[in-house]
UniProtKB/TrEMBL annotation:
The organism's taxonomic lineage, starting at the top: Bacteria, Bacillati, Actinomycetota, Actinomycetes, Mycobacteriales
Organism: Nocardia alba
Superkingdom per UniProt: Bacteria
InterPro entries to which the protein is assigned, alphabetical: Homeodomain-like_sf, HTH-type_TetR-like_transc_reg, HTH_TetR
The name this protein goes by in its record: TetR family transcriptional regulator
Gene3D superfamilies assigned to the protein according to its UniProt record, in alphabetical order: Homeodomain-like, Tetracycline Repressor, domain 2
SUPFAM superfamilies: Homeodomain-like
Gene Ontology terms for molecular function: DNA-binding transcription factor activity; transcription cis-regulatory region binding
Length: 210
């Protein structure tokens, strides 16, 4: 039974990846707004309903790491080491992601960045994901510090920290579209991240220390 469930799970993951890969190929070739769900289904050799079962929104075919993106900052806070503040943990994770040229922080390549920049629908979905990530971080900070619903401190802290990540993501996109290499962008963003988190240190350096 366990083996059968494992095979079923792998099959579902393969189907999801197949749909996502074919969709990305079509979007990059034609532009997001020019491709329909029916086009994606035909390219992936599945039914249209299968596409929508895996990806309820067309935008999710592009931003298919949305759930991981939303929980990213909150997870860093929940998993931080003893003695480390939330800000310090997020600073370390940010610099690590930049050094690794991680897709989650924005290293997606010029063609992908251009596709998103040219689509109002994808830009709007990106803003929704950023907002959801900030809310998830605020919830995690509230849980970690035992804050009451009336205490706005977790929300203020989350707005500041998530805002830094958002500005850095936008800067990666700007530089990518400008034709800079990932290596050059990572070097510039490392400097910018240090500046940004240094600015937060006086306000949040001792906040939410585990």
């Amino acid at each position: 039974m366990t083996t059968r469930q494992g095979l079923r799970a792998r099959k579902k993951q393969q189907t999801r990846e197949q749909i996502s890969d074919r969709a990305t190929e079509l979007f990059l070739a034609r532009g997001f707004d020019q491709v329909t769900i029916a086009d994606v289904a035909a390219a992936a050799d599945v039914a249209k309903m299968t596409v929508t079962n895996y990806f309820p929104r067309k935008e999710d075919l592009v931003l298919d790491i949305g759930e991981t993106h939303v929980d990213q900052l909150a997870a860093i806070v929940r998993e931080r080491a003893p003695g480390r503040s939330a800000s310090a943990a997020l600073r370390h994770a940010c610099l690590t992601a930049i050094a690794a040229q991680d897709q989650l922080i924005g290293f997606s390549g010029k063609a992908f960045a251009r596709m998103i920049a040219d689509s109002p629908a994808l830009l709007a979905r990106g803003r929704e994901l950023h907002d959801a990530r900030q809310s998830a971080l605020a919830d995690a900070l509230a849980a970690e510090t035992g804050a009451t619903p009336e205490d706005i401190t977790p929300r203020i802290a989350a707005a500041q920290i998530a805002g830094v990540w958002r500005v850095l993501c936008d800067e990666i996109t700007r530089r990518t579209l400008g034709g800079e290499s990932n290596t050059a962008i990572a070097a510039a963003l490392t400097r910018d991240a240090v500046i940004a988190f240094d600015a937060l240190e006086s306000a949040l350096g001792t906040y939410a220390v585990r």
